[in-house]
Amino acid sequence: MNKKLIWMCAAILFIICGAFITTCCISSDDNPVVEIQQPTIQRIQERGKLLVGTTGDYRPLSYREADGNYWGFGIEMAEKIAERLDISIEFVQTSWPTLTADVLAEPQNFDFAIGGITITDARKATMLMSDGYLCNGKTILCRADEADHYQSLADIDKPEVRVMVNPGGLNEKFALANLTHAQIIVHQKNEEIPSQVAEGHADVMITEITEAPWYVQNDPRLAAPLLNAPFTHGEIGVLMRQGQDDLLALVNAVIAKMKADGSLRNFHEKYGLVYGY
Questions:
Q1: Tens-place pLDDT, residues 17-56
Q2: pTM above the 0.90 mark?
Q3: How far is residue 78 from each of residues 7, 147, 224, measured CA to CA in Å?
Q4: Are 226 and 147 in contact (CB under 8 A)?
Q5: Cβ–Cβ under 8 Å, residues 165 and 175
């Protein structure tokens, strides 16, 4: 092979490789700056709309009113991310039993899911999860006049205690794993369970420290006697499919900025939640 042909092949190879690698330049202070490709963000911006999956059944993080409007802590977080992208937002209904399938669906249902989604190793094994923006943990709701009956998990795990959970989520998994003697009742609509407890159709609801305060504040029939001593400790984050690392980096940057400028603390105070950062 002659030298001219070798140089032609090398040039073609350089052009092809250059289409797939990031470029690097030198800033004014001689520190390298890497330009990272952003295919997910580019696709979203070309669409002109951020699609966000949410269950709409988890006050005060994500709730869908009868008129179709959404509100909550997670909803406002999603709006902050949309503002960062400078595009509009559309919420897409999902559910706890179908959450993973909806995130992984082909064609893609939404760009990410938000609203009461706990960061777990199981989810991180098959999907991407953002940094935490809200502390979380399992606790209970019960009737206010029976609050002194439930001071531990052992007090709940008795044959006469009716424990209600929503299907397909971590609340049901926790109840099945830890309450082997209590009666487990699965109720399809998470947002109806507090009133089911208050009206005597169940004794205890397995819920989260992010959800329980709202119901206690808005229904005097209910109490959360173990709110300050949750059974588990974790964080809530944003869930998305793998391969969207550029979108994940942007979401984490929004969360970091909100922690730094105090706006995340303001959201906690607005919704009556404990600020743990």
A1: 333 333 333 333 444 444 456 899 999 999 999 999 999 9
A2: no
A3: 51, 35, 28
A4: no
A5: yes
